[in-house]
Amino acid sequence: MIEVTQEIIGASLRIATPLALAALGELVDLITQGTISGRIAKDVFAEMFETGEVAASIIESKGLKQVSDTGAIEALIDKVIAENQDKVDEYRGGKDKLFGFFVGQTMKLSGGQANPGMVNQMLKDKLK
Predict the structure, then answer these.
(1) Final residue of a domain: which of 10, 43, 62?
(2) Whole-number Å distance between alpha carbons of 98 and 95
(3) Which residue of 14, 59, 61, 109 shows the fewest CB atoms closer than 10 Å?
C-alpha cells in the first residue's frame, strides 16, 4: 500500500485525484475479502487512477478475480511438481530456498490470480 500512497501523493501535487475515497475503500475491501490479491490491486488501482472506473467493474471486465478454488490450485501445484521433480528432490533434500521457486511457478501458471496464501499452504502440505 506504500506504493499506492506514494502514487497518490505524487499525482496530487500535479492534479486533483479523480478517485473518490469510497472507490479506494472498495478496493481495500476487495483485498480484505480475498477477491483480489495485493499484486492484482496494484494493477486495478493504476487503471482506476487513469480511467476513474470503479474497481469491481475493472476486475470483472478483465477477469482479475483471485482464484480460491482448492481444486484448481491443487491442479496447478500438481503440474508444477510433476514438471520439476528434480527441484522437488532438492527441496526435500534440504534446499528450503526452492520453496519460493514453487510458489513462483504456481503463481505464473495461474496468471497471478491464485490466492497466494492458499498456494503457500497447499505447497507446504504437498512438499512434505
Answers:
(1) 62
(2) 6
(3) 14
